[in-house]
């Protein structure tokens, strides 16, 4: 039996992270229209805040590997797939950037900013549609 491909279109977006020379060093895919991502992000927020507080209170090298693993697992959970295979190959989640922020924070901010922008855009479209359909209800 032959396999058939079905193109469903969609809004799958690739987010790339580059070094100072413009070389792509990490990336992930996300469909910002998938409401489950926002749901998983909200569910993971407390865990990530707890990890961050523990890491600041106890920044030992021994615990850093555990924090890195927990953060990586949380990001994989948020995105709904093993994004760490393309995100954390050259550097880990807890690798500090030039400004002192860890790489995972950059990734999480990218996810959050794009989800927020898309959710606001969808909400505006929904409100506009509701305005025109209200008279028929």
Walkthrough of the structure:
- By secondary structure, this protein is mainly α.
- The protein has four helices and two strands; from the N terminus they run E-E-H-H-H-H.
- The protein has helices at 35-57, 61-79, 84-87, 103-133; strands spanning 13-18, 24-30.
- Strands 1-2 form a two-stranded antiparallel sheet.
- Helix 1 (35-57) runs antiparallel to helix 2.
- It is globular and about 65 Å long.
- It starts with 12 loop residues before the first strand and ends with a helix.
List the defining traits of the structure above:
137 residues, mainly alpha, two-stranded antiparallel sheet, 56% helix
Describe how the helices and strands are arranged.
Blueprint: E1 13-18, E2 24-30, H1 35-57, H2 61-79, H3 84-87, H4 103-133
Antiparallel strand pairs: 1-2
Largest sheet: 2 strands, antiparallel
Q: Strands of the biggest beta sheet: in what spatial order? A: 1-2
Number of distinct beta strands: 2
Helices, by number, come to: 4
| Structural class determined from secondary elements | mainly alpha
Question: Which segments are poorly predicted (pLDDT under 50) over 5 or more consecutive residues?
Answer: none
Percent strand? 5-15%
Radius of gyration: 19 Å
Q: What is the share of helical residues?
A: 55-70%
Mean pLDDT: 87
Distance between the termini: 49 Å
Shape: globular
């Amino acid at each position: 039996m032959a396999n058939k491909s079905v193109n469903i279109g969609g809004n799958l977006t690739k987010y790339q992270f580059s070094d100072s020379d413009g070389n792509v060093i990490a990336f992930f895919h996300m469909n910002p229209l998938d409401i489950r991502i926002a749901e998983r992000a909200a569910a993971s927020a407390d865990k990530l805040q707890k990890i961050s507080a523990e890491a600041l209170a106890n920044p030992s090298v021994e615990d850093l590997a555990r924090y890195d693993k927990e953060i990586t697992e949380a990001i994989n959970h948020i995105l709904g797939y093993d994004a760490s295979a393309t995100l954390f190959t050259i550097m880990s989640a807890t690798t500090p950037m030039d400004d002192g922020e860890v790489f995972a924070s950059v990734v999480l901010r990218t996810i959050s900013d794009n989800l927020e922008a898309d959710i606001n855009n969808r909400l505006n479209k929904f409100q506009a549609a509701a305005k025109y359909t209200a008279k028929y209800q």
